[in-house]
Amino acid sequence: MNLGILIFPDAEELDFIGPWEMAGMWNMVSGVPERRLIVGESGDPITCAKGLSVVPHVSFDQCPQLDVLLVPGGQGTRKEVENSALINFISEQAKKFESVLSVCTGTFLLHRAGLLSGKRATTHWNSLDRLRSLGDVNVVEERVVHDGNIWTSAGVSAGIDLMLAFIAKTADEETAGKVQFASEYYPSAIRYGAAHHSPVAPGYLKKTV
Amino acid sequence: MNLGILIFPDAEELDFIGPWEMAGMWNMVSGVPERRLIVGESGDPITCAKGLSVVPHVSFDQCPQLDVLLVPGGQGTRKEVENSALINFISEQAKKFESVLSVCTGTFLLHRAGLLSGKRATTHWNSLDRLRSLGDVNVVEERVVHDGNIWTSAGVSAGIDLMLAFIAKTADEETAGKVQFASEYYPSAIRYGAAHHSPVAPGYLKKTV
């Protein structure tokens, strides 16, 4: 399996490094995916939304056919939806990949690449209305949404849950459990302050407060 | 506030990007920390434990006095405990910093820098016995441990909980709540498979299964 993670200027760091870490642990516990690649438009370092500088492993031109593509979100997506090279990269890969995953506002890049029409999908709580306004997406306010070979998740940290769910489905639950144990992903249930009581909190969160 | 995150070859990606993201959101919601720096021994790109290549913002020589230093873990720590330049960087910064945080096996780097003797601290579940064998650390099997100005956490993903707890203490709970909401950190409670029932699971996890 070739797993590629697409990055671009102002991609949100945890959106893609959460899943990157889970995929790395998956490889550690079971040898899959055999290749894990950070993909950029060129091979030059890319400055992410919070200022981290990451060097892609391959450029679009160098990237092999991927079996699984993950697309993060971040402020950069608002510009990248107009980047035809990036949108074409997604749609060309889509002709042959097995699965595509997006985190947070990465959903909007999948939509622009023509992959979400009529599909169930989600995004960061602050962009749910914007996703609905596209008119052709069945917006679901869950943390992880799976529709055929298209997986989308809520914002930023939700990419970790997304990748674990994908591993559980693609390999099996025991493998996902080994990844979860290796990365010690048994998060605190603490909810600080009152922000999560906001009326714009996503549906899955409102169900629990 | 100057926040520095130390990285080195084979540092574990999520160990430092989890806290990096939370610190970036902290800056977004309240303007603090004013500076957030990835610090490497030189300014050259560093390959992390799962293969991600990150370019430090500053080298040890260029790094200003930090108010807060975060030290991640990863396989690289086993080599870096013998790297006097790195250990000296920590111990020199320690003369003036306000707080130090470590994630996972970053604990062993703090210990080598002389910061943990007689202190309560923790690490990744797979290194708890090794931490106990040092003889002078009061090893606590909690997810986040706070002893004076020294904060340590369990493995890999626990750095997210560590940084949120640090923000709640240093700023206030409402600010931590805004960071948690912005990063949509309301993780799934799913535990896949049976790995977490292992007899070597950490104490805080055993209490919940």
Please describe what this structure looks like.
- The structure is a homodimer of 209-residue chains.
- By secondary structure, chain A is an alpha/beta fold.
- Chain A has one domain (2-206): 3-Layer(aba) Sandwich (Rossmann fold), CATH 3.40.50.880.
- Helices cover 35% and strands 19% of the residues of chain A.
- The first copy, chain A, contains eight helices and eleven strands.
- Chain A has helices at residues 13-30, 77-80, 84-94, 106-112, 128-133, 158-170, 173-182, 203-206, and strands at residues 2-6, 35-40, 46-47, 53-55, 58-59, 68-71, 99-103, 120-121, 138-139, 144-147, 150-153.
- Chain A has a seven-stranded mixed sheet with strand order 5-2-1-6-7-11-10, with helices on both faces. A two-stranded antiparallel ribbon of chain A has the order 3-4. In chain A, strands 8-9 form a two-stranded parallel sheet.
- The longest helix of chain A is centred in the N-terminal third of the chain and has 18 residues, at 13-30.
- The first copy, chain A, is globular.
- The N and C termini of chain A lie far apart (39 Å).
- In chain A, 55% of the residues are buried.
- Chains A and B meet through helix 1, strand 4, helix 6 and helix 7 of A and helix 1, strand 4, helix 6 and helix 7 of B.
